């Protein structure tokens, strides 16, 4: 009995020790995560953002309507601590509506604070539209600039469906309802409808470039044929103002009365949402399932189509080899 009692006491002591070490380990982990959070977000903390500084906002990747970015630009606009803004642009473009929304937000911001765009590798299509919303554009000599224009793309999988023995029957209220679609070749009437829509948006885009870059209408049209330019060519064509990097952007801000000794703080997104990417992946899987393609092959379908099939509405994006550059 004595041995049994001693064993019970030892087990209780062991459990107490294990509990103590578990609690301690949990506390250390919590402190480490807390410290890591503040280490990673220290430059974006409230205390640093409350002191005078130059804000940097990145516009990167394929352009969509981005509520988080729009809110961030509004917060920068409303912050008394922000004395100037560097808009870091590296984008092939994206949806026309998404570019329009961000363009308008940057224009509102530029009404209150000096804003300069610093182009990295690429500012094309809707990416260039957004860059032009600032009052000064700086780009590298080898940056890619331009691709002013609008397009509308849709796949025609009718021949593929025929080979698979699938026929899609459609009953609709009028001939142009839901045209064009994936399942039938587009009619000439449908193509004409889309063309009218594209030309209307194109005229609007050309008007923006004409206004922002102080071109005549003829000058804007001459540069709006979809061509892309190096930074060197773009400065010669007055699509941008200066060659260089962040130091040139700071130099321009200084001419607007902004102290170039102020710290440059990047206003980062609070949380990067993968919701859009999730829906894009889901759409690919649904199409693969509809076509009878194994779900594991959905990745191959994505490689063949890129994201362009799933960009909603009119698109202003630069393509190379049939795929959007920088698509995620």
From TrEMBL:
InterPro entries per record: ClpP/crotonase-like_dom_sf (IPR029045), Pept_S49_SppA (IPR004635), Peptidase_S49 (IPR002142), S49_SppA_C (IPR047272)
CDD domains in the cross-refs: S49_Sppa_N_C
GO molecular function per UniProt: serine-type peptidase activity
UniProt keyword Transmembrane, yes or no: yes
Keyword Protease: yes
Domain Peptidase S49: 109-255
Gene Ontology annotations of biological process type: proteolysis
Assigned protein family: Belongs to the peptidase S49 family.
NCBIfam families: SppA_dom (TIGR00706)
Name of the featured protein: Signal peptide peptidase SppA
């Amino acid at each position: 009995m004595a041995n049994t009692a001693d064993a019970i006491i030892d087990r209780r002591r062991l459990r107490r020790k294990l509990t103590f070490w578990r609690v301690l380990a949990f506390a250390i982990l919590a402190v480490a995560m807390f410290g890591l959070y503040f280490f990673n977000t220290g430059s974006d903390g409230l205390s640093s953002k409350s002191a005078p500084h130059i804000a940097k906002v990145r516009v990167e990747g394929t352009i969509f309507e981005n509520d988080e970015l729009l809110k961030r630009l509004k917060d920068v606009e409303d912050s008394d601590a922000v004395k100037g803004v560097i808009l870091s642009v590296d984008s092939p473009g994206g949806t026309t509506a998404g570019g329009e929304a961000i363009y308008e937000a940057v224009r509102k911001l530029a009404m209150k604070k000096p804003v300069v765009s610093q182009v990295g590798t690429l500012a094309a299509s809707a990416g260039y539209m957004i860059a032009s919303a600032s009052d000064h554009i700086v780009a590298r000599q080898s940056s890619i600039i331009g691709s002013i224009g609008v397009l509308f793309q849709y796949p025609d999988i009718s021949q593929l469906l025929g080979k698979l023995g699938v026929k899609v029957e459609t009953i609709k209220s009028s001939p142009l309802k839901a045209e064009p679609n994936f399942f039938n070749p587009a009619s000439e009437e449908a193509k004409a409808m889309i063309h009218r829509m594209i030309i209307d948006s194109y005229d609007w885009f050309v008007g923006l470039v004409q206004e922002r870059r102080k071109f005549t209408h003829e000058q804007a049209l001459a540069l709006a044929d979809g061509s892309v330019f190096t930074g060197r060519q773009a400065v010669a064509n007055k699509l941008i103002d200066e060659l260089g990097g962040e130091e040139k952007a700071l130099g321009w801000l200084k001419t607007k009365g902004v102290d170039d000794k102020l710290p440059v703080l990047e206003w980062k997104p609070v949380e990067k949402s993968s919701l859009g990417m999730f829906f894009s992946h889901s759409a690919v899987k649904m199409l693969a399932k509809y076509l009878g393609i194994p779900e594991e092959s959905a990745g191959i379908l994505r490689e063949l189509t890129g994201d362009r099939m799933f960009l909603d509405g009119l698109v202003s994006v630069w393509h190379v080899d049939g795929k959007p550059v920088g698509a995620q």
